[in-house]
Amino acid sequence: MGQHADQAGDNRAAGEERYRTFAAFYPFYLSEHLNRTSRRLHVVGTGLVIVSLVMGFTVSPWFFLVAPLVGYGFAWVGHFVFEKNRPATFSYPLYSLMGDFRLFFETVAARRPW
């Protein structure tokens, strides 16, 4: 990883600096998703979250319970197995969720490599 990612990781672990905006957080988010397989797992997991939410509204509310399990399941396998890092969800839950959806839509729109 680059110096920015190492520095951000050190700051996050020490609790010295918090990201105050999503715009400031997103470059760090991308630095934590350098592995192609991990990014793919995130995109698939987020896609399944969207499907689960739609199914929750149209088929059964039980699908709402499936959404976070599927999303985090795929993402955390990506982090623990392929990235070998700690998911940002633990320190930045909202920004991390926003990052997952932005990465998903950028990938689907071919603005980021699959």
TrEMBL record:
InterPro entries documented for this protein: Mpo1-like (IPR009305)
Transmembrane segments annotated in the record for this chain: 41-57, 63-82
Stated name of the protein: DUF962 domain-containing protein
Domain of life (superkingdom): Bacteria
Keywords: Membrane, Transmembrane, Transmembrane helix
